[in-house]
Design goal:
Helix content is about 45%, strand content about 0%. The structure holds zinc ion. The site of zinc ion has 8 residues, from loops.
Amino acid sequence: METVSTATTWSRDTVKGEKRDLWSAMKRGFRCRCPRCGEGKMFRAFLKTANNCSKCGLDFTPHRADDLPAYLVIVIVGHIVVPAALWIETNFSPAVWLQLAVYLPLTFILSLALLQPVKGAVVGLQWALRMHGFDENAPGDTPPV
Ligand SMILES: [Zn+2]
């Protein structure tokens, strides 16, 4: 006997709710703002997300950024500092102590400066793609009336 499944196949058209603009959500997250309203603060501490948006109430707890922001920051900072160091070494050959005195603090400062915005962008990405608990049925994920 053959059974017919009534479950629908997932596709972008079957996703319920409003369309979420990926780039807008990531830009808002990069500015450390709520990916949905763009006004409420996303973080309550340096890398601790708030539980909810202070403006629209979006629940931030479902995000699973984990180590991705750190990996992305390593890639970004590496692609800035290493080519600059190679270019300067090739063209000017300054003393090693001078290079270390510039590159190490530069790497440290760039990494700290980018960690929070990159984590915000990752949370914005997860919200826009409805990953984890960022879906229509999640509590607190409906816009205020
Ligand atoms: Zn919000």
